Structure formats: structure tokens, C-alpha cells
Sequence to fold (405 residues):
Amino acid sequence: MSISVHNPDQYMAALRTIIAQGRKRVGLLVGAGAPAGMARDDGSRPLIPAVAGLTTQVLTKIAPTYQAQIDGLKGDLSKSDIETMLSRIRSLSSVIGTTKVHGLDGPGYKSMAEAICVEIGKIVQVRLPTATSPYSELVGWVTGAPRTHAVEIFTTNYDLLFEEAFERARAPYFDGFAGAREAFFDPASVSGDQLSTRWTRLWKLHGSLGWKANEHGEVIRTGQADATHLVFPEHLKYDQTQKAPYAALLDRLRSFLATEDTLLVSIGFSFADAHITARVDEALAANPAASVFAFQFQTLDKETYATEIARRRPNFSVYARDKAVINGVAAAWSAPSELPTRDWGPIRKSYWAPPVDGQPSEFTLGAIDAFSRFFANSRSPQAFDLPATAGAPIPMIATSTPATA
Fold:
């Protein structure tokens, strides 16, 4: 009987070559799992909680005032994470007027949304650790090679960790806003590519600390960390100026993937966000020359949202702890006993953990620390001879290896 396995050396050798060269169009999609996997200066974790932890903390804080509404909304919604609840609360604030739902009218829900944003702002208003961090290592990778195309970072996180990492490195970035006192959003610059490739593009898909709506309803960037305009864009019941940043940034993600020979690498993102996932799915269907590599922290059976896309899109690959889905084939990882080159041992250790206490070997790049270190070290001198298919589309660089059961 023949089964399929995936050889991590083949795929990581190909990825390492791609990210080291600076010639390919590469983007990162960074979700809440990234800062959740980071340690604070005192060694405690997480630096910022993931969505589940954020939801618990925020709802606990506002419960003394809004417990009845929290209970009612949880009963109404199929998902009760804080972003979905915030979207529903904003919907209610804009449509019910003086009618009461779960004991609050429209203005009451507006106040509840503001209270949620204040609490989120308090939680995510953290600084990078003083020592080297995964964010600083990723910025080091971005700035460490001359690039034909600017790196684009798409993130659903509200924090300012990437901004701080770029500023520490004195590396320029563009987030779609221009100005000083009340920086305005410029959709034309977001959709175009006129900036120098030295400028990393940083796209905050769900909003950010420092964003707020001005008296005209336009979203501006103030530079004040307590000014929060955070939106999970489940509905678009805003006027055009108010929804412009979010619509334009999601369109940028789709247009990025519509470009030929493009690679988007995700870390800390579950693909449970239907709006982002739909745009990724549509773009990959329309453009087989684009690829997504999804690095997931959990075992494959728990990464259901990412796996669902990978099974129907051969240019979407999932790299989980125990297994992978590559070219539509789900199979376990299996690293050969022999190294591909004599000096490959230290490189393999950066993504492959040997068995411990009877547990099987694991692929480790789903964790932000290992992921960022792999990127940062991609330009180290060790070499690996790629197979003759290296010029093919990324999902076809290596194929699953038959093994005899």
C-alpha cells in the first residue's frame, strides 16, 4: 500500500530561496495569533491575547454596565467573539433609533461600541519587548535585501507593534494615510504602486490604534494611541467616506493576489474571517500564478478554515504542526534521516523539532518566534540545490513523496 508524505526539507528549501532573493513579490498576512505567541519582557505570555482572550477580557470589563446586552447579543449571534459583537452593536446603533433591543436604544448601543473600543485599546496598547522580537526580526528580513517589489504586510491586528519595529529600524513604511495633525486616508495611493520599493506597505485591515472618525465621518489617523476606530466589516451600512479605508484595504489584498507570480505568507491567522478568506479564495481562483502559504500553529485537524480552502485551491498550502495540505494533498510530515546537504542540520532545526518524550517530530514554523527567525536567517550562507522544477509556480516546486506503508 502506498501513502503520501510531505518532506519539509524540500518545501522549506524552496521557500528559503524565494524569501532570500528579494526578486519575488512577497506579502505577509499577520493575524492575532502572532502577538499572542510572543512573550513580554518579564517572560509572561501572551504579549496581546488572541481573539478569544481579548473577547473575555473586554466583556468582563463592560459587564457591570452591559451584561443584559451581552447576554442578549450572544443569544442572537452564531459567533460571539468581540469583533462580531462589535459589528452587530454598530449595526443596531445605526438602525434602531429610539426602539429598544435588549434594553438599549440606538444611542445606547453607540455608547456600548465606544466602551468596547476603549477597552480593546487598553489591552492592545503594548510596546515591543526591549530585546530582539519576532517583529524586529521580520523587519530585519524586509530591509535586509534590495527588492524588486515592496513587501506588503496585511494585518487584522489593532496594535502598533509593526509600526514600532519599523521606527526602531529607521525603515520607511506607508499605511495609506498622509498628513501630520489629522492624517487623511488616500485610496489612490493604496491602489497604486508609485512609492519606492524601500517603503514597506502596512495595511491594517480591521483598523488601528490611532484611528478615529472626524466630524465629517472620515477616518483619520491622529497618532494618539487612545483614539480607536476598530471595525470588523461584517456590514457596510456606513457612508462611503466612513467605509473607505476598510473597503480600499480589502481591495488591495485582492489586487495583490491578482498580480502574477505573487506569494502571500500567513502567520497567526486562522482564516475564520469570512471577508478576508473570501477575497483570498476569489483571487486564487482567478490567478493560478499566485500562491498562499498558511503557517498554522495547531495540528491540521484543528485548522479547519484554512484546510477547507487548501483542499479546493492547489495554490493554497497549509503548513500545520503535524501535517500539511500541499497541491491539494493532505499528508503527514516526514523528514528523511539523511540531510539534503552536509550543512543543512542547523537549518532543519529552525523548522523541525525532533521527538520529545515519545511525541512525534513537529513542524514548528506555525509559531511566530520560529517563523520570524526562519525569515531573518534566510540570507545566511548555507546553500541548497533546488530541483529542476524551481521555476514552476510555487505550489509545484516540490511534490509529495510516496512512501511504503
